[in-house]
Amino acid sequence: MQYIVAEFEHNLEDWQQSLFTQDLADIGFEAFDGPKAYIQKSMFEETKLQDLMAQNPQVHLIGWAECPDENWNQIWEQEHPFFDVKFGSQKLHIIPHCAFGAGYHETTTMMLSGLDKLSALPTPFHVLDNGCGTGILGIAAAKLGARVTAIDIDSHSVESTQENALINHVDIQVFLGDTPPEGQYDLILSNIHRNIIIAQMADYARLLNPEGELWTSGFLDQDCEKIIEAAKREQLIPLAKHSNGEWRMLKFKKS
Fold first, then answer.
1. φ, ψ for residue 84 (rounded to 5)?
2. Distance separating alpha carbons of residues 108 and 105, to the nearest angstrom
3. Which whole number is the average pLDDT over 224-251?
4. Which residues share a beta bridge with 173?
5. Can you tell me the distance from the alpha carbon of 120 to that of 88, in angstroms, rounded to the nearest whole number?
6. In this predicted structure, which of 48-57, 155-164, 166-175 has the lowest mean pLDDT?
7. Scanning 82, 100, 103, 137, which has the fewest C-beta atoms within 10 Å of its C-beta?
8. Are the CB atoms for 255 and 233 separated by under 8 Å?
9. Among 33-37, 48-52, 192-196, 245-249, which is the least confidently predicted range?
10. Considering the entire predicted model, what is its pTM?
11. How far apart are CA 194 and CA 67, in angstroms?
12. Closest by Cα among 16, 9, 17, 5 to 60
């Protein structure tokens, strides 16, 4: 899968940068690394990017270029060493490669904190890591004794999750695709873009067990109302709202 990398220059405050990042996500950018943003080549539309820049005169677009797979992996691995992420009394060993979610982002931190607070899980307990990236959330759930299924649209993320699961001595079933795998889940973790969460809400409701929970993150405060409305349409009841900086996490259960 080939990517386009765009580089920006600005002096935005943190809250302004979060809003600009959300605007980029709205037009298809899916990963952000300092002044750089990445989008799949097949989704890139220069006119949309230029329109966005016209709406944000305080941000300067330095330029954009294709980022072939081989360069993508090499650059990412050079700039991002492995991470040891604390999870309860354990450490999760994560090698990011070109996948996303090494444990340092606020949304991942909220999800990990929620998992850490879970009491002893019943057996069996089936978890879906939807948009798994490096697999860190699924790995954490597996460390708690859950049976874990994971999925991502990016083949690199699938490979990264498989490798990281092996390194952390857990077994995770990983799929490549853009829709949640069929099954019945006790917990669905969806730390992705708000539009995907809303679009897949009916799938989440259908795949959740009667006492199951849906945990969502990857969005800002102004997105919460739309996500809650989409959940209520599928008979999912809001349980809790968590904050970490500008980012939010919402939990739901079946009515």
1. -105, 115
2. 5
3. 96
4. 149
5. 13
6. 155-164
7. 82
8. no
9. 33-37
10. 0.76
11. 25
12. 9
